[in-house]
Structures
1.
Amino acid sequence: MINLFNNIRAKIKSGTRISDAEALALFECDDLLAVGELAALANWRTNGVKVFFNVNRHINYTNICINRCTFCAFSREHEGEDGGYTLALNDILMRAAEAVAAGATEIHMVGGLHPDLPFDFYLEILAAIKADSPKLHIKAFTAVEIDYFASLTGQSPVEVVTALKAAGLDSMPGGGAEIFAHEVRRQICPEKISGERWLEVTEQVHLTGLKTNATMLFGHVETYADRVDHLARLRQLQDRTGGFQAFIPLAFQPDNTRVPGAKGVGGVDALKTLAVSRIYLDNFLHIKAYWVMLGLKVSQVSLAFGVNDIDGTVIEEQIGHDAGADSPQQLSKEQLVALIRKAGKLPVERDTLYQELRVY
Amino acid sequence: MLEQIKEKLQLEKPLTREDALWLLTEADLLALGKLADNMRRRMHPDRCVSFVVDRNVNYTNVCTSKCKFCAFYRDEIHPDAYVLSYTQIFGKVQGLVDSGGTQLLMQGGLHPDLKLDWFEDLFRQLRHRFPTVQIHSLSPAEIVHIAKLSGTSMAACLARLHRAGLQSLPGGGAEILVDKVRQKISPDKIGWQEWAAVMREAHKLGMPTTATMMFGVRERLEDIVEHLFRIRELQEERGGFTAFIPWSYQPGNTELGGEQASGVEYLKVLALSRLILDNVANIQASWVTQGARMAQIALYFGANDLGGTMLEENVVAAAGVDFRMSREEIIDLADDAGFVPARRSTGYEVLETY
């Protein structure tokens, strides 16, 4: 065990990447602090004492979805179903305007795969938001939604993204990745696009010059080996395109979902996963803690475990909360800055592309 | 400085107040955590993480102390004010026994009318009806209050309660053991030396006790250090403390208000507690105030115990913080973190491992 840690420490210091076997060994070991120390070292070399955050707002334009992923408590089958909705363009514009008034620099917009909305609807939203607020960065649509739009229009993902970009799309979030392994997807989201397709669409998006994030939903039926496989495929794609900005491991929330036997993610597993991600993904600049799913305390502690990015001042987040996430609905900038400072780090407000807007 | 502290710990030499303050202000979270984790591994090489199946019964919420940080107390005339009857208490303890529980942690407000005989009678009956349940009850503030109300000395009061069946005392009411802080947050409560006197007396009578600390209540870091050293020094006298439980003040529904301490602050204080209290066997993680995830992480920052399953908890819940954990969840929590879950008695004897 000491050998494992010493070898990895040497690799981090010399900028050499760790192997899949080493990543697996880190997941399996029970020395949380040793793993944390290595992750802190890796992060220190890349990001020093800086911790990024941005002021953003999430807009989930519809929860109507043709997929029935078992881990999701957000989706509804149709508007008639209890709690089913699709936002009107005006509602979306109003929320975007409120966000700008509150100092947001980014809108994070994702939704279910709606059976009836035409592709034009999405182009209209983007154009309308941009017309209202030309400086607002629109980070929208996962690779899953892009693939869906491609099948709706009969166009390629590249053509779809080109059209979306022209209408105002600035970057994409990393959702829909879950766990790439077939056997896991077969159990938790059989109707969703495959891991290979997610990676393929993402690669094409990167080649158009658009940046995206990447995620991993963990703590359900997957094994440590599945997690390493997922990270490996992301690392490989990043080597080819360099288009990923941040990696966000998402802790599975079991309430109101249909994944049998899955208990969710404990504090130790959450920290370890963030830490191993930091060490393994040497070609990703940012590892992000999504406080909505992890809670504020664990997210703050994770800043000592290799994390250098805390996701935003999220207003009215629904997806994580529908599944029982036990965190506030929103966090003020002042609270975030204080949280980061108390962890001994330097809070830096960023825009979506990680330009530093203000150091606190 | 870190190197000097590391050396002292390796040689099992005690740390000073200066060392403690340095750790709290300058040490990196992981470095501090590692020192505490090493000490925990040394003191508990069996990798057991223990817990007790218990119930917190609050016999009354009527309280004359009215601490500013408390959301639980009520005035006697308040519609929510209550005093449990013996029958109600027996019902609750029966529920505890039915769940395989072994500990009754009974605490309440400082009621203006409940005198010594009310408690003696209750404890005698509890011992008779529920011989398998340990009565781990009444904090020092209550002992002092009951003695005054009943016209007896604190020592005599404690002795009588002990004879009636009281077996150990929980460590509550410690808050911060520095009078300047106590005067600000709970001016009508006993001072730190009175708290210590009750514990000293309990230990003399052969009653083990725990000790707590409620921090994040506008104390200085020096006050946290002083609190830890006062417990340590008290422990040197008779070794009667079985465990120490630090936990953070919860501001909801209280007069004092404010914010609660952050996760990093909790872990630092917990880790420091493990290091300074090298003469106290057990350090408990507080899932009640921090939630399950942080409690699990705490097992790597010096904690080796998860407290009680708390079939019932009302005091912290009154501040709007109501994390709950079942026995199975506590066992899973310890197991998932790589430890051996162990159900224990109030006296920290292992009853069952999983």
2.
Amino acid sequence: MSPRPDPTAVLQRSSRWSDRSFRLLCLAGASTIFVLLLLVAYQLYHGSHLARAQFGWKFLVGSTWDPVDEVYGALPFIYGTFVSSAIALLIAVPLSVGTAIYLTELAPVRLRQPLVSVIEMLAAVPSVIWGLWGIFVLVPFLRVSVYPVLQHRLGFLPLFQGPIYGIGLLTGGIIVAIMILPIVTSVSREVLRSVPDLQREAAYGLGATRWEVTRIAVLSYARRGLMGAAVLGLGRALGETMAVTMVIGNSSDIAKSLFAPGYTLASVIANEFTEATTDMYLSALFELGLVLLGLTIIINIIAQIMIRAISSKETRRVA
Amino acid sequence: MTVTSNHYLRRSKNLLMNALSVACAVLVISPLGLILFYLVRQGVTALNWDFFTHLPAPVGQTGGGMGNAITGTLKLLALASVVGVPVGILGGAYLSEYGGDRINDWIRFWADVLNGVPSIVWGMVAYALAVVPFKTFSAYSGGLALGFIMIPLVLRTTEEVLVLVPRSYREAALALGLPQWKMIARIVLPTALKGIITGVLLAMGRVAGETAPLLFTAFGNSHWSHSLAEPIAALPLQIFAYAISPYDDWHRQAWAGALVLILLVFALSAGVRLLAGERKKP
């Protein structure tokens, strides 16, 4: 009598096969993250080979961007990107941290969730709409009401000299500041929330006022995480494209004045990519993309490490 | 210094800092009020039925609409979801159901880093992958660029909701003899369906307003597109083009387009809140 095939064994074999393929499918989905990372790096590296071969490292320090004579240097855009991002951080970080303190330490509990929802809505406003608002509302307002006063008071500094157009580096920085406020605020809020209540109670117990509690128990504890939030904001600021393109003036001269028009890495790509008529021109734009990618990846790695450090410290404490 | 004066100093410093933090909150929130005010004030005047159904009017003529841009944006969102949603959900399922702690940490970390890559860079990648080989701008390439942006977003939110599915559900399913893959596909994913949809809507809301990655992929089109292999109009592109144009009538149209776009984005996030609210109730 031949042994009958065991039906469960057949079932097991087929389910083992489908289990394994489903697992592989999911793994493929998860590894897409690494595939995307390699893909983006490879495409930009490959796309920029002409410019890299022609200009080498001088590309990064060259201050001439002349598509007619095919001379390309990225310095004006790197400068514009950093100046506008620095302005954005100077404005956005104090405001965001202040708001995060209000949301975690001061606001009535009933008000907190609605305020957080409002900030989420703020984060959802598309860049191009900020740009539109920037062109027609912010720029005229700054040109007429703010910049002349600023120049009158601080005109002895080279930063605030020269003609006022309304559009320019400072305006670009201000619009980027508005756009990174929500993310810096919400990450700062998460960081402050992860400060254990025990810290606060201890400080209150010593008779500290609310501000002293915030300063001694909360802010000093959360300093690294808040810096992480700021660095994350920097990452977003560097890559901000449309709104900046619409208000920064798009001039590839390196100007000392913050009122002068400038240009950022992202906005030169946005403006000139479809106009790039020669291979070298396109390749140079790809290299700008590569610089932008490298900067944002490094900045984001630093930010994630800093933010993670504080949350894992928290979980360890709880555990 | 006496104790009392020190006390008053501390009290007033406390009040000052509290007032400052309230001022910060007001300043942070005020741009939202400002932008909504201007969008409604400037946008409503140009909004009418024609705006949703007609093509853009040629220069010099008033009227016309953004019908092609609105349908274009919807098509691009659909294409982006085809790219981003399945990959994101499968990846999220891997993190929650299979992966070890070490590899999961890596994937989460790099997903968050990818999230910070500027959207215009994804446009360049999609250009190299889908525009150069076919020698034409197309809806496909635009959808691909937006899909790339969606992948890490969907992956992270999917994982977050899948780990909320109670362990006992999984154990019950396995105890009944379901193979693991069926357990995931038939029990875990459907249980978390609302949460997954929430994540997908969030990601769609994020890419719906993206302009930079479409500039040299979808490219824009002032006519109706008949094929996804052609350049296609998109609402954010149209707003951009009109905003930087020198014509007053186009500026009006840009405001109207911006109003429609923000309503679309807010509708997506309202859907999110609705689903999330329902999920919390039981």
